[in-house]
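Worked example 3 (structure in, sequence out).
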């Protein structure tokens, strides 16, 4: 049968059987109306007719009686739904169970047949249409939004908390750097790529939103995408919660903010840097100086210095060669200044031809002077501009924080003033703003230069101080003390130069020379003078010598050359050295012990802590610092420290030498507490070898210790 024959309508049907516009299809039911709302009603009797009608027409709503001439039951509905998909269907059915089934598989509403008069059916159909329109709109809007958001470059994601899956839109996949085929719905697809430093922050933000502490989830984080490229991503989302407030899902978008970030960073960089040279600008320089001033050192002061560099006669460069040439010179000077920086330092263009250099962690003015000299030398190298080569010079002002500045501006101003002073003194030079500091720094620099020459020309001689055996009154050993024969200042003791020798590294050549001379001297005494047969040599050893490569081999060769047995040599190390140098020094000390030389802790008692060293069987001797010796101060003083130290040492089999003995009372007291060796001005000051040789052969008679009669020494 031709299904179109049985179609009933109000006559709007076209020749091909299609009806223009939306309509309401009644299947197996006569609603006794040709319109519901604005829409025409089309009626067919059988399911077959309905299906063929729907092949060519789209119904806004279908009303179907589940009991039709060609089919009945739930399959009637199923076949309609299969054909139409989203079109709402109202079913007419009397059986309650069947009605529920129909709703379950997708019917929008149902009516018992006897209630389906036009008065009820009309409003019901209209309300079904309205609901459907709303939800269809919603779907369409969502879809449009997805297309729009994806098209605008942001990727959508939806994290289903029930299943744990995440839907990533194609754009989202692209942002995360995986193709759609690779895309999985595991959240790790995203989280695994988040920069490790940002992951904690992302989780914290997510948790805060889930717990309700933040209304939206928002987090800008770095991400290394699937191609290994670093990106900045802004993730934003909002949770959907159930009636109890539990999060069922979070939906949101990912936006690639790399370009924006880069622009922002560039903008920040531009605002803090000089466009021409790329160096820090004045604002950033002041900020850096301020920061450096606010970081106090251990003693509560910050050590920094500011060099204010101004090019000499720069205006001439511009006038003679033009501004492009001037720019080139400024860029080149900036580059050269940068090359003198240490980590943490800053160079800035302060304006025009003025540059600033901030040096951090500088004590004294030596380093600043050294850098200023380097800058003067570097800046004055010719600069090629086109076919010309030009030479510019600079004047530099130096201000250091040791002069006590309150803020960045004042230290920079002082450096500026010092720069003007350098200009007025003839340009192409540096000037320190604080005259005493200038003087101190200069004398230190001169001292280093002089000391270098002194090492080259060996302007040193050795003095020796006897170490007296308190039982026999004989010279047990000698301590070698270096002296500098300064061409103008005469003989200088180590306090004038040891520190500079240490910091400049000159102590290494100097120290070896001392060791070699002293070994030769004592070696020859032991060979030539019977009274010196057992005299030992004690030398002070710098930590730099201790850690010098090949130290043990060189020492062994020196001893062999001087014919001095290793056991006749004592190497003295200060307490601080032993405590500061750590494991490497310990290892070296052990190697020295293995050579057979003896080791002493010098100036014992000044620092606390080295007492534990005594128990390690590394040291054979300790030398009580004069401050400890002084505490003996007469038998009745009651100060227990010296006697305790001597007692501990005796128990550990360690020899003790009391240093700095200056009075007979001290000596008497030392004897009283069991001290066996001593040195000090009371016996002899350090002296030239000839004097010491005489003392070894003929020790003063009053040295002889008839225990307990020290006071009467004058009678000898
Ligand atoms: P030190 O090893 O503790 O040497 C003892 C210092 O005390 C010597 O000073 C000595 O002249 C002085 N002295 C000796 N007896 C007395 C006394 O009764 N009273 C007082 N007040 N002082 C006394 P010097 O020669 O000026 O040496 C000072 C320091 O320089 C030495 O202290 C030592 O640490 C270091 N030194 C000396 N010579 C050398 C050397 O050749 N190499 C190295 N690396 N350091 C050396
Ligand atoms: Mg010493
Ligand atoms: Mg000492």
């Amino acid at each position: 049968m031709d299904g179109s024959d049985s179609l009933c309508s109000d006559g709007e049907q076209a020749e091909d059987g299609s009806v223009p516009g939306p309509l309401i299809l009644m299947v197996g039911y006569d609603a006794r109306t040709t319109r519901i709302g604005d829409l025409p009603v089309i009626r067919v009797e059988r399911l077959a007719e309905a299906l063929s009608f729907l092949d060519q027409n789209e119904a806004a709503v279908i009303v179907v009686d589940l009991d039709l001439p060609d089919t009945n039951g739930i399959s009637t509905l199923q076949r309609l739904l299969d054909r139409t998909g989203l079109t709402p269907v109202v079913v007419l059915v009397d059986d309650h169970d069947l009605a529920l089934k129909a709703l379950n598989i997708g019917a929008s509403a149902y009516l018992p047949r006897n209630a389906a008069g036009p008065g009820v059916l009309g409003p019901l159909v209209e309300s079904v249409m309205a609901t459907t329109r709303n939800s269809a709109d919603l779907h369409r809007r969502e879809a449009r939004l997805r297309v729009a958001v994806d098209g605008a470059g942001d990727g959508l994601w939806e994290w289903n908390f029930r299943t744990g899956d995440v839907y990533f839109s194609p754009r989202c996949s692209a942002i995360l750097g995986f193709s759609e085929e690779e895309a999985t719905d595991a959240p790790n697809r995203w989280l695994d790529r988040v920069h490790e430093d940002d992951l904690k922050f992302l989780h914290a933000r997510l948790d805060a939103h889930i717990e309700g502490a933040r209304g939206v989830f928002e987090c800008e984080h770095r991400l290394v995408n699937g191609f290994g490229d670093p990106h900045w991503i802004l993730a934003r989302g909002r949770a959907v919660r159930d009636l109890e407030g539990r999060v069922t899902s979070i939906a949101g978008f990912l936006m690639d903010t790399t370009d924006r970030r880069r622009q922002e960073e560039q903008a920040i960089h531009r605002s803090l840097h000089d466009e021409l040279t790329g160096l820090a600008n004045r604002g950033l320089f002041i900020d850096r100086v301020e920061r450096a001033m606010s970081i106090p050192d251990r003693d509560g002061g910050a050590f920094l210095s500011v060099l204010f560099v101004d090019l000499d006669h720069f205006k001439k460069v511009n006038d003679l060669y033009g501004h492009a040439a001037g720019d080139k010179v400024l860029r080149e000077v900036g580059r050269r200044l940068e090359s003198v920086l240490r980590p943490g330092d800053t160079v800035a263009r302060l304006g025009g031809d003025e540059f600033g250099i901030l040096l951090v962690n500088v004590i004294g003015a030596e380093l600043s002077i050294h850098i200023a000299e380097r800058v003067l030398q570097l800046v004055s190298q010719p600069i090629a501009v086109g076919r010309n080569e030009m030479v510019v010079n600079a004047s530099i002002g130096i201000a250091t924080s040791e002069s006590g500045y309150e803020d960045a501006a004042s230290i920079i101003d002082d450096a500026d003033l010092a720069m003007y002073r350098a200009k007025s003194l003839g340009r192409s030079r540096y000037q320190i703003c604080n005259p005493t500091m200038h003087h101190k720094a200069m004398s230190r620099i001169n001292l280093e230069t002089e000391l270098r020459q002194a090492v080259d020309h060996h302007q040193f001689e050795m003095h020796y101080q006897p170490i007296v055996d308190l039982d026999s009154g004989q010279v047990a050993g000698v301590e070698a003390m270096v002296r500098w024969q300064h061409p103008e200042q005469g003989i200088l003791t180590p306090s004038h130069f040891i520190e500079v020798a240490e910091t400049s590294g000159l102590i290494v050549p100097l120290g070896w020379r001392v060791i070699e001379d002293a070994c030769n001297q004592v070696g020859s005494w032991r060979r030539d003078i019977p009274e010196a047969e057992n005299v030992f040599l004690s030398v002070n050893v710098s930590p730099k010598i201790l850690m010098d490569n090949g130290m043990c081999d060189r020492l062994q060769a020196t001893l062999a050359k001087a014919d001095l047995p290793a056991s006749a040599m004592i190497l003295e190390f200060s307490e601080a050295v032993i405590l500061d140098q750590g494991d490497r020094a310990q290892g070296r000390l052990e190697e020295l012990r293995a050579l057979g030389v003896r080791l002493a802790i010098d100036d014992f008692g000044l620092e606390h802590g080295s007492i534990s060293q005594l128990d390690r069987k590394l040291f054979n001797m300790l030398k009580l610092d004069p401050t400890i010796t002084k505490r003996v101060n007469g038998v009745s003083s009651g100060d227990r420290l010296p006697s305790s130290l001597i007692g501990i040492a005796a128990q550990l089999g360690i020899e003790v030498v009391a240093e700095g003995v200056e009075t007979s009372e001290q000596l008497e007291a030392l004897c009283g507490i069991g001290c066996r060796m001593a040195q000090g001005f009371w016996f002899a000051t350090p002296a030239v070898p000839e004097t010491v040789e005489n003392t070894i052969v003929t020790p003063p008679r009053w040295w002889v210790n008839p225990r307990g009669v020290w006071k009467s020494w004058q009678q000898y």
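Notes: The domain at 23-144 is CATH 3.40.50.2300 (Rossmann fold). Residues 1-11, 708-716 have pLDDT under 50 and may be disordered.
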